[in-house]
Protein: Beta-glucuronidase
Amino acid sequence: MRRFIALLAVVAGTASAADALRPPLLLTARTAAQDLGGTWTYSKDYYRTSLTDINGWVAKSRMQRFRDVDVAAEEKKSGPAFFEFDLDRGPTMTLPGAWNSAVPELRWYDGLIWFQRRFDAKLVPGQRSFLRFEAVNYRASVYLNGKPIAQHEGGFTPFVVEVTDTLRALGNRLVVGVDSKHDAQSIPGEITDWDLYGGITRPVKLIRTPATFIDDATLRLNDAGRLVGSAQLNGPQSANQSVTLRIAALGVTLQARTDANGEARFDTPAPASLKRWSPEAPTLYDVDFEAGADRVRDRIGFRTIAVRGSDLLLNGQPVFLKGISLHEEEIAPNPARRLDEAAARRLLGEVKHGLHGNYVRLSHYPHNETMLRMADELGLLVWSEIPVYWTVDWDNPAVLDKARRMQAETIYRDRNRAALVLWSIGNETPVADNRTRFHAALAQTVRALDDSRLVSAALLVERKGDVIQLADPLLAALDVIAVNTYAGWYGDDTLDRVARLRWDVPADKPLLFSEFGADAQTGFRDATLRRKFSEDYQADYYRATLAMAAQVPTLRGLSPWVLKDFRSPRREHPVFQQGWNRKGLISETGQRKLAFTVLANHYKNLSSPLP
Ligand code: GCB
Structure:
């Protein structure tokens, strides 16, 4: 404990920096926008020749894919100039979606590709225009009409850039260099257990606003039973403006004035008629914010989440999290990380209606915004995490800054989602002083940015004979303890032994099994020998692990690994895996395995709310 306090002291200065982490532009709840999805052209740039030439010299202009040039027209003129690209005549790809699944030639491509979209735009005098990218994996260099307008690192969070002065009415040329390469300083690092999935994997939208607009607006229920929130204006008329907040269904109308920084704050007792959001009754309200010529609407649920001793309290009542983990990968034979509404509904529908669940762990990175909204709508509590996974460069302050920025981008994006109750700051990071310092700093950043949700991390456990222990100094920084446990799959334990294992964990905090699981190839049945990779073994493994879990007095939730088989370059058993991690309870095409029913029955039979 003393060691942990010392660590906290080192990072104490960072909390005050929370405001500085707010992304400069958010435009989170805009539905009216020009969708730039559809057909784009692309050009591979394996040696990054658009950016630098040999010896690090400035790139040759004939290589620079981002130039606003009509190559075909230039080629019709006589003269010495020539080009080694032409995005107007390049091959096409439908975006959003990962390139690895779009074109067989790009299945294992890991590097830079340039994408181009031509579009016309309606220019309205006095209005402002913005491009919002929901996710580009992993690094983005954005050019509009030949001009560099944005750079972004991080494959799972949005970024916004103003284009008012660069946009033209006809024939805009939007070019995005997407570099999927990860390195020792990236988050995640170079090795994970999921697919590379490079590309523009989430929507790109052109958003128009009045000169002064509502960049972001938030509202939540606090523990004192009050609705508290704020609206942030951006533009020349931001200061000392009136902002109106309306929840028509509750008869609520509030007004507040913005301060010198353009922020208006709201704080009012929640009306008695307010129905709290819960998995059983996921009530959402249309909340309207209006300021000058601008208005935005968000659909928001209201609930509280807290910890009391080893209990998790949702709206003041103990809750047991009946969940599952999942990757952002749609049910399909050749998924492209394309989570539109139908795909999100199908995945989360399996959790809600198939497994009788009330909870999902959206691993191992912030998922598509559609998933969060679907969880709100269906009534599934959510664990969200940034990809501080296995190992990143713990000693590098720039990497910590990157993690903080990703965390901030996620929090500002999702803070109106009632479903979201847990922020996780890491997954299976090996215990060491530098790693604990890094996480403690991140935990503090999360609390400074959002003290209304709980902080957790998926930790590694230690084994002493039949006893599983947790001796991680990071525990002190967490509200909820979470562990990944694979006894009975990795290692030599028989399943009889798994059911006998005992847990020695702190009694004063809720414990979650954030992962447990076993591979099974759909259709491989082995009723006699019940070998690993058979559906029978996976089902037995679930029975044994659930029996073990039932003996842990502080256990408050489960998110086994994993809902669906997912692509992973680590998994190359030629018979059973073929490039897929097979720990899914359903196959990549949605076929349920035996263990699905084992878990579904377990959840169905758990007495509510505690087991
Ligand atoms: C883990 C990781 C997860 C892997 C899983 C596995 O502990 O957190 O990303 O995919 O194990 O299948 O081994």
The radius of gyration is 25 Å.
